[in-house]
Amino acid sequence: MSSPEVTDTAGRPDEIRAVPVRRPGRWIAAAVVVLVAAAIGRSVATNTRFEWDVVGSYLFDERILEGLRVTVELTVIAMAIGIVLGVLMAVMRLSPNPLVSGASWLYIWFFRGTPVLVQLLFWYNIAALYPKINLGIPFGPSFIHADANTVITPFTAAILGLGLNEGAYMAEIVRAGIISVEEGQSDAAQSLGMTRLQAMRRIVLPQAMRVIIPPTGNETISMLKTSSLVSVIAVADLLYGAQIIYSVNFKTIQLLIVASLWYLALTSILYVGQYYLERYYGRGAVREEPLTPLQRIRLGLFARHEEGGR
Amino acid sequence: MSEPMVKAEAVHKRFGRHEVLRGIDLAVAAGEVLCLLGPSGSGKSTFLRCINHLEKINSGRLSVDGELVGYRQVGGKLHELRESEVARKRAEIGMVFQHFNLFGHMTALDNVTCAPINVRGVPRARARERGRELLERVGLEDKLDAYPAQLSGGQQQRVAIARALAMEPKLMLFDEPTSALDPELVGEVLDAMRKLAAEGMTMIVVTHEMGFAREVADTVVFMDDGVVVESGRPGEVLANPRHERTRAFLSKVL
Ligand SMILES: Nc1ncnc2c1ncn2[C@@H]1O[C@H](COP(=O)(O)OP(=O)(O)OP(=O)(O)O)[C@@H](O)[C@H]1O
Ligand SMILES: [Mg+2]
């Protein structure tokens, strides 16, 4: 039998120094990537038809910036509606009451089953179906009377179309998150005297967030781009701003590049936001918190520092 | 004799057509420790869950501290309690689970203070102070800010005990609190439970720890196939079981 002392004094074996396996495939792949990237880079830089100076001059054009604002606004509001509706529909879907869960099922079925472009056009033209909007108790008195054409502006039609559609997708995402949380969590919460809804809000949903956030990030990024569909109902978003300009000066490609650059900038910001949200809701799920990119850079610098100092 | 803390009379429970509890009768006096033994699938967990109304019984009567579980009797009729009323009653019964079920997104201290703050409306500062005391009592004063994933099984189960105690329950239910633990961690959890028993807590403990049952229990109940086969003092039931089924079970676990 070996005792700890024996292994301690035995000393460490020589470190392994083996010739690494050669991987010629990797080198070939890397060469191809570099070559293709160089070719694209050169063509973009030297092809004068890109007219980068035109791109630059319209990048901060007033109409583009105004469109950008509308796009951001649409995305934020539609996602907010989508998330609220999604949580509501997901909780309803899991309700033991079949009428409640059925209503949620129907909603999801309808809004996921039709193209969002059709829904946008539908809301835009709702006045044809309901010239007057009356809100009140069904079959009872109504409190709010309005003219559909004045209430449903292109912007509200866009919000309704995008938000209601998003709600259906978010409902499925949130539901997947909720059922990913063990039932024991809800048992424990209820055994402590929480009601079903309290347990959902304080215990289940916060833990479901870990599963909900990544696809929600995808949805937001996707919404940012899907919102460009609203240009068909004359909402002056980013793409619409670009279209207005190139319909006059015919610099179509340059203005599409301008719009693309802004879309890319916005999605990049969303990436960063998503990273931090995931980190926040991942707490407790992993033993050690992952480093933020900033922390990682700082750590990397220090580590190199130390090595250099030795 | 005063009213027992828990009283079950002919309690039946079905899941679909599968009858899991087939007429349970038992009584637990205030301050008593009752250990519930029985083979897997005999309905022990189900019975515990019925006591705090996590499961609804199909027939019979079940009461805690003189009040029916989940119902109110008005005249000759039973009325179902509202969810908020059920919740209020559950808050007075602590439950400790086999797999701890700590809230993964909260630190140990937040696990302990969550219900007092959100259910009872205890001010945060007071709840945290009390939470610290409770965690200290189970020997975890240095783990206040640890998340469950950073704790060993034994530590997690002790947090779970502290969490249940934070609601100042009049009855504690333990469902195999040590059977998910490595053998060397069982002792620390049993110690915490022993202490609690010594302080006079009324406890129902489902366990396979015969040593604990022998030493701490006032009563041992052996269940099989949804009925109580025999019950009595640990000295009698564990040493001289009267029923063949009890004998067969004990010969396997001892
Ligand atoms: N929610 C449920 N739906 C259907 N059947 C269930 C449910 N919960 C428990 N059962 C069944 O009831 C029976 C008793 O289960 P229970 O968990 O009470 O047994 P137990 O005595 O605690 O066993 P163990 O020692 O394995 O924990 C089992 O046959 C089980 O399959
Ligand atoms: Mg069980």
Descriptive account of the structure:
The complex is a heterodimer of chains A (310) and B (254). In chain A, 72% of the residues lie in helices and 4% in strands. With 310 residues, chain A is mainly alpha-helical. Chain A has a single domain (51-281), classed as MetI-like fold. Chain A has a two-stranded antiparallel ribbon. With 254 residues, chain B is α/β, with parallel strands linked by helices. Chain B has nine helices and twelve strands. The longest helix of chain B has 16 residues, at 183-198. Chain B starts with 5 loop residues before the first strand and ends with a helix. Chain A binds chain B through residues 182, 184-185, 187-196, 198, 202-203, 206-207, 281, 283-287, and chain B through 52, 54, 83-84, 87-88, 90-95, 97, 99, 101-107, 114-115, 118-120, 147-150, 160, 163-164, 167. The structure holds adenosine-5'-triphosphate and magnesium ion.
Overall structural domain count of chain A: 1
- Span from first to last CA of chain B? 35 Å
Q: What can be said about the biggest beta sheet of chain B?
A: 6 strands, mixed
Radius of gyration of chain A: 28 Å
